[in-house]
Write a structure and sequence with these properties.
The protein has about 170 residues and is of the alpha+beta class. The chain has helices at about 5-35, 40-50, 55-65, 80-95, 100-105, 160-165, and strands at about 75, 80, 110, 120-125, 135-140, 140-145, 150-155, 165-170.
C-alpha cells in the first residue's frame, strides 16, 4: 500500500510526537524512582555535599569532580591527591600546605576519627606503613579526594577498603 504525500507527513509528525512522549514520560518516571532509592552510595554522597556548611567548598568540589588523576598534576587536565588537598586548602581556607601527602600529615593537629569536621585532612597508607594518600573530610563519613582510578570523587570513608588503610586525620595547624 502506497501512502499519499500528505499522509506521510502526518505519519512522521505522529511518530515524532510519540517518540517525544515516550522520552519525556520515561525521564519523569526515572526521577521519581531515583528519589525512592535514597540509600544508594551516590545519593548519600550527594546528601553529604548538600549538607556542607561552606558553599564555597561545595562549588570547589563540584568544579573539580571528575578531573582525572595524574601523578604530580595540579590542574584540570589531571591532579593527584596531595595537589587536590593543597589547592582546596589554599583556595577555601587560605592555608598553605606542603606538596606531598606525607609532608601534609606533619602539619596537622591529630584528631580522633569520630571528631572529624568539614575540611579536616584524612591520611591513608595503601602501600605499607608510609602515608601515600590524602583526602578532605566533608561530613557524615564522606570525604573528597583524587582517586587514582576515578579522579576527583566524593567517597564513603566507612568502606572497608578505606578503613583498612586509614592512618591519621586532623586539622591544619595555624
Amino acid at each position: 500500500m502506497k501512502l499519499k504525500p500528505m499522509k506521510k507527513v502526518y505519519l512522521r509528525y505522529f511518530l515524532l510526537a510519540l517518540t517525544w512522549t515516550i522520552i519525556f514520560t520515561s525521564c519523569s518516571s526515572r526521577r521519581h524512582t531515583s528519589n525512592a532509592n535514597t540509600g544508594s552510595r551516590g545519593a548519600k554522597a550527594a546528601d553529604a555535599m548538600a549538607a556542607l556548611d561552606s558553599k564555597k567548598l561545595y562549588r570547589f568540589i563540584t568544579d573539580w569532580t571528575g578531573v582525572p588523576y595524574r601523578l604530580g598534576g595540579l590542574n584540570k587536565k589531571g591532579i593527584d591527591c596531595s595537589g587536590f588537598a593543597l589547592l582546596l586548602n589554599q583556595e577555601i581556607y587560605g592555608q598553605k600546605l606542603p606538596r606531598r601527602s606525607r609532608d601534609q600529615a606533619d602539619v596537622i593537629r591529630k584528631k580522633d576519627f569520630s571528631r572529624l569536621q568539614e575540611g579536616d585532612l584524612i591520611f591513608f597508607s595503601f602501600g605499607g606503613r608510609e602515608i601515600d594518600h590524602v583526602g578532605v573530610y566533608l561530613n557524615n563519613g564522606y570525604f573528597v579526594h583524587a582517586s587514582t582510578s576515578k579522579g576527583v570523587i566524593v567517597d564513603d570513608l566507612n568502606l572497608p577498603a578505606y578503613q583498612r588503610v586509614l592512618i591519621k586525620a586532623g586539622s591544619v595547624k595555624n
